Amino acid sequence: MQENSPHYPAASPTGKEAAVAVKSRSPAAEQTFRRSDRTNRLTGIRIVGTGSYVPDRVVTNHELEQSYGFEPGWIERRSGILERRYAFPHQATSDLCYEAAKRAMEAAGVTADEIDLCVVGTFTPDSGCPSTACLVQDRLGLDAPAFDVQAACSGFMYALMTASQFVATGNSRLALVIGGDVNSRIVDAKDQRTAPLFGDGAGAVLVSRGGPEQGLVCYQAGADGSGGPLLEMVSGGTRKPSTAETVAAGEHFLQMDGRNVFKWAVRAVTETIDLVLEKSELSPHEISLYLLHQANARILKAAMDPFGVPPEKVWSNLDRYGNTSAASIPLAMDEAYRSGLIEPGDLLLMSGFGAGLTWNTGIFRW
């Protein structure tokens, strides 16, 4: 498809950069995050099926308080989370993704032989190799290329953007897109400031060709690796392979500078929502439903308050699942769709943001 195609146009010109300044872990350093005003459009695609899966094991705040001596009430006050789901010992990320994919296929009424692409957004793969997508592809019996996309809590939006390119250009007829993470395996259970925020889950959608106005009418994907130290796992990669010493020091667990992540997330979500609305010439009230990454209730409120959107238009399941990383947006989408809140022609605003630092905010016409 040509660059000037109405269904796959070139990026809009780069505008002025928006800067966000927050302190890094070093008290003497000042970290500046930047994003441009560049946006893109990717229409001619549609979502034909949704599915999700969360493990049966429910872990309440009370259980964590009793097990680890966390301050009573702290988790709910700071995050809005009441409980989350943890995978059982025999479950890995691919298992959750497989279940979500099956449900999406059943909802769409499609069989494995119709799917010709599988993209999984995750930062908690079963193992370093093979990819989680290949494990899902094999278990579903797909005859399709399969690969992972690693953008942490932005993973589903990055995976959706990537798979949609294949569909829009005719290189895929039906793509399976999954976001899934087993966060309970990468956090230190004794860390009150990080561990209680996260839960496990997976969500999936099926993408096919659609009408010329369907799909991502405007989106912005971005990254700023200079903010990497705010959310990181220090060891376990090729820079610093895991050793007995690094494991003893807990360097294989996710480490988060919560205060500065909060500041960045609120600013990033607010500014990118404002940007895609402006570029689309839409008001906040023309959006049918907001499906934002379920990171923290305080982040969602602070980011959405400037737009004056009523709470019922901002989907929230954070209290039940916590932060499920790449799973949070497709899980919310599946719940909303099955609740009858998404109709043909509706405009959904989705925003993923997380480690990298990465973000992807887009308006999707159903």
UniProtKB/TrEMBL annotation:
Residues 147-225 form the Beta-ketoacyl-[acyl-carrier-protein] synthase III N-terminal domain. GO terms for biological process: fatty acid biosynthetic process; secondary metabolite biosynthetic process. Its EC number is 2.3.1.180. The keyword Acyltransferase applies. InterPro entries: ACP_syn_III_C, ACP_syn_III_N, FabH, Thiolase-like. Keywords: Acyltransferase, Cytoplasm, Fatty acid biosynthesis, Fatty acid metabolism, Lipid biosynthesis, Lipid metabolism, Multifunctional enzyme, Transferase. Its main location: cytoplasm. One of its GO terms (molecular function) is beta-ketoacyl-acyl-carrier-protein synthase III activity. It is an enzyme of class 2 (transferase). It catalyses: malonyl-[ACP] + acetyl-CoA + H(+) = 3-oxobutanoyl-[ACP] + CO2 + CoA. Belongs to the thiolase-like superfamily. FabH family. This is Beta-ketoacyl-[acyl-carrier-protein] synthase III. It comes from Stratiformator vulcanicus. The gene is fabH_2.
